[in-house]
């Protein structure tokens, strides 16, 4: 099993910044891809940003140029720096991790952290 602990959500005014963190822990696993998804009220969950074990990144078009994903492999931690936040960024943000254990890959989700951007 892999446990994910997210932190950094909160309330911020439009134009402000927040940094989300997600630390993965567990035994006998290898972390592969890491990422962040979000789900706004009444909308489907969507991928915000992803980062491979080698550092390749991808972003949703709506956050390109404003959000930056990064990871610290030594700490098994993924970060999401969110700048120039907009009210439409309001959502619950979920950390996601693909980890390999005993040669089998599993996808893990965090419990989510609320990000609220006021206008």
What does this structure look like?
- The chain is mainly beta and 119 residues long.
- 0% of the residues lie in helices and 61% in strands.
- The protein has strands at residues 2-7, 10-13, 18-26, 30-39, 46-51, 57-59, 67-72, 77-82, 91-101, 104-109, 113-118.
- A hairpin with a 5-residue loop joins strand 5 (46-51) and strand 6 (57-59).
- The mean pLDDT is 95.
Q: Could you list some keywords that capture this structure?
A:
single chain, 119 residues, mainly beta
Layout of secondary structure:
Elements: E1 2-7, E2 10-13, E3 18-26, E4 30-39, E5 46-51, E6 57-59, E7 67-72, E8 77-82, E9 91-101, E10 104-109, E11 113-118
Parallel strand pairs: 2-11
Antiparallel strand pairs: 1-3, 3-8, 4-5, 4-9, 5-6, 7-8, 9-10, 9-11
The portion of residues assigned to helices is under 10%
**Distance separating the two termini:** 40 Å
Question: Averaging pLDDT over every residue, what do you get?
Answer: 95
Radius of gyration: 14 Å
**Global outline:** elongated
Contiguous low-pLDDT stretches (5 residues minimum) are: none
Total DSSP E strands? 11
Q: Characterize the largest beta sheet: strand count, sense, and whether it forms a barrel.
A: 7 strands, mixed
Strand % is over 45%
Number of helices: 0
Which structural category do the helix and sheet elements fall into? mainly beta
Q: Helix and strand succession?
A: EEEEEEEEEEE
């Amino acid at each position: 099993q892999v446990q994910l602990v997210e932190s950094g959500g909160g309330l911020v005014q439009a134009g402000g910044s927040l940094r989300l963190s997600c630390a993965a822990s567990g035994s006998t696993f290898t972390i592969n891809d890491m990422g962040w998804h979000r789900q706004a009220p009444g909308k489907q969950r969507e991928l915000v940003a992803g980062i491979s074990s080698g550092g390749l990144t991808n972003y949703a078009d709506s956050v390109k140029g404003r959000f930056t994903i990064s990871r610290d492999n030594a700490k098994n931690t993924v970060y999401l720096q969110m700048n120039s936040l907009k009210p439409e960024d309001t959502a619950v943000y979920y950390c996601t991790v693909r980890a390999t254990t005993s040669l089998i890959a599993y996808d893990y989700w965090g419990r989510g952290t609320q990000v609220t951007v006021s206008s």
